[in-house]
Write a structure and sequence with these properties.
This protein is mainly alpha-helical. The protein has a domain of 197 residues. It is 75% helix and 4% strand. It contains eleven helices and four strands; from the N terminus they run H-H-H-H-E-E-E-H-H-H-H-E-H-H-H. The chain has a two-stranded antiparallel ribbon. The longest helix is centred in the first third of the chain and has 31 residues. The protein is globular, with a radius of gyration of 19 Å.
Length: 292
């Protein structure tokens, strides 16, 4: 029983990491119709920047972790905003070119990160509490899992509140429905769309810093690895659906943990089979809108 509890809770914690990356992908695609393959680069850059910031205060202190999370989120937001302004905005309505540009940027940034920080993973120092476990229903759960769950819940609530209750959130939703009408009212929708990219990048940067705490290392390839599962989560949950991404993150991560333990490390294979099944049975995803 304790083993099952351990797998379930750590699976939900891993799902929290997946959601932090997938939330940005889902938000950007749902509101702007853009598939951003460079999203993992925001995560990696945020992770390295956050780690450097934490080191300036103390990597193994709570103050260092908090400062690292803040800097990681701001770095991811800045990188995403610059990408939207410089590369995506000139290519609106040109979806093939958008995909090619973001794929190229993803490949180029991995090479850039390797040139700056080297190709090998770097271990990180963590606060003492994050190196420990907490007993829960008879199982010893790594404390990093609880941190990931809390962060994912806060980010989900913050994004939903931003879209529902803020002026820019209303502009973004209105611009998605009828961009020409909103522009005719004298509102620059382009600024709102840049903000969407920044919010998604901030979530990715935050996820990058948390990933370093869970995995105990940072690597130039970290973003690319997590991006694969984030795309799977986004498709299974429904392209553009934040609640769908949240549900799919938990389903994918828990299934992955269970399969890795009970079926001899076949978690990745089982997740791909689930993706294929969803695409065959419900192409719009679990909570996505069906095509008209």
């Amino acid at each position: 029983m304790s083993t099952l509890v351990l797998l379930l809770v750590t699976g939900v914690g891993l799902g929290g990491l997946y959601f932090l990356v997938a939330s940005g992908l889902s938000l950007i695609y749902g509101l702007m119709g853009i598939l951003n393959f460079a999203h993992g680069s925001f995560l990696t850059l945020g992770a390295f920047a956050g780690l450097a910031a934490a080191g300036a205060v103390g990597q193994d202190t709570w103050g260092g972790l908090a400062f690292g999370l803040l800097v990681g989120a701001l770095t991811g937001a800045a990188a995403a905003a610059v990408t939207e302004l410089g590369l995506i905005r000139p290519l609106y309505e040109r979806h093939i070119e958008q995909v090619l540009v973001t794929v190229g940027l993803a490949l180029a940034t991995v090479a850039l990160f390797e040139g700056i920080w080297g190709p090998n993973p770097r271990t990180v120092r963590r606060t003492e509490w994050l190196t420990r476990t907490t007993e829960f229903l008879g199982a010893r759960i790594p404390n990093t899992a609880f941190l990931n769950i809390l962060a994912a819940a806060v980010v989900l609530g913050a994004i939903v509140a931003f879209l529902k209750y803020t002026r820019y959130g209303l502009i973004i939703r209105a611009g998605v429905e009828n961009r020409a009408m909103v522009t005719a009212l004298g509102i620059d929708v382009r600024k709102a769309f840049t903000l969407v990219f920044a919010v998604g990048g901030a979530a990715a940067g935050l996820g990058g810093v948390l990933a370093t705490q869970s995995l105990n290392y940072v690597s130039p390839h970290m973003g690319a690895s997590l991006l694969i599962f984030a795309f799977i989560v986004t498709v299974i949950g429904g392209m553009g659906s934040l609640p769908g991404a949240a549900v799919a993150s938990v389903v994918v991560a828990v299934l992955q943990q269970l399969a890795n333990y009970f079926l001899a490390n076949t978690g990745d294979f089982i997740v791909v089979l689930l993706l294929a099944l969803v695409l065959l049975v419900r192409p719009s995803g679990l909570m996505g809108r069906r095509a008209a």
